[in-house]
Amino acid sequence: MVALMPGPCDWPEVTSVRSTLRGYQPYTGVVPDLTPDELLSTTRSVRRRLDLDRPVPATVIDECLSLAVQAPTSVNRQHWHFVVVTDAPRRAALGELYRRAWSDYARGQSPFHDRPGEPGPAASSRYLARVIDRVPVLLVPCVEGRPEGGANAALAELYGSVVQASWSFQLALRARGLGSVFTTYHLDYEREAAAILGIPYAEVTQVALLPVAYTVGTEFKPAPRRPMAEVVHRERW
Ligand SMILES: Cc1cc2nc3c(=O)[nH]c(=O)nc-3n(C[C@H](O)[C@H](O)[C@H](O)COP(=O)(O)O)c2cc1C
Question: pLDDT (tens digit, 9 = 90+) per residue, 166-180?
Answer without folding.
Answer: 999 999 999 999 999
